[in-house]
Design brief:
Arc Repressor Mutant, subunit A; alpha/beta; DNA binding; Rossmann fold; single chain
């Protein structure tokens, strides 16, 4: 079954360009589109989608608010945020609201298609350098560390190797960098990440980063 993509952008020409690019691929299909976040949330209540390509700055309801509403409603679609500005305050807010990653609007077509497939597969599209800058913004706002007497019980579910991988993810390492540092094949790294997501009941890589800092697994 092809990956179902829903387009949200206030510019009809941009939506048309994305539609042409996506529908030229055998494994991708556009199932709908909207010109603002409110219309998108309303449409997605009736339309099944795997990935929402979400513009960040729109009239009526912006991409951040729309992402929050979809997440709160438990919609299964993963949100890939599109922005003109690299990691502006809206992008941070969207990632914290539940978006699975972001991409600049001037990304190459191949990068966009790859990002859609990665997000649909459960990966987060946030470059390591961007993760580090994200942490610089987000970590100071996190609640205080848990005390030694109240550790998160989910930590007990993890193996030593899974904890190693979690620490590397929190540091902003890519899968290939994690494999190199821990002497693991990249496929094995992906397996560990999948187990981390399942055991911790976390949606994506961004959530793993925040979990690592909130629980004290990663140093601040």
């Amino acid at each position: 079954m092809p990956v179902r993509v829903f387009l949200v952008d206030d510019q009809a020409l941009v939506r048309s360009g994305f539609r042409m690019l996506i529908e030229a691929e055998d494994d991708l299909v556009v199932v709908g589109e909207a010109a603002d976040g409110q219309a998108a949330v309303q449409a997605l209540a009736k339309v099944s989608a795997d990935v929402v390509l979400m513009d960040i700055r729109m009239p009526v309801v912006d991409g951040v608010e729309a992402t929050q509403r979809l997440t709160a409603a438990g919609h299964p679609a993963r949100v890939l945020v599109l922005t003109t500005f690299d990691l502006d305050e809206y992008v941070f807010a969207a990632l914290k609201a539940g978006a699975s990653g972001f991409l600049l609007k001037d990304a190459r077509p191949a990068e966009l298609l790859s990002a859609i497939r990665d997000v649909a597969a459960g990966d987060a599209v946030v470059a390591p350098s961007a993760t580090r800058r994200l942490l610089a913004q987000v970590v100071p706002t996190l609640p205080g560390r848990p005390t030694e007497h109240t550790p998160d019980p989910r930590l007990a579910l993890l193996t030593a190797r899974e904890l190693d991988v979690l620490v590397e993810i929190a540091a902003g390492a890519s899968n290939s960098e994690i494999g190199s540092r821990l002497y693991l094949a990249e496929g094995t790294v992906k397996t560990h990440i999948g187990r981390l997501l399942a055991k911790l009941e976390i949606r994506d890589r961004v959530g793993l980063v925040l979990f690592a800092y909130e629980t004290g697994v990663a140093p601040r």
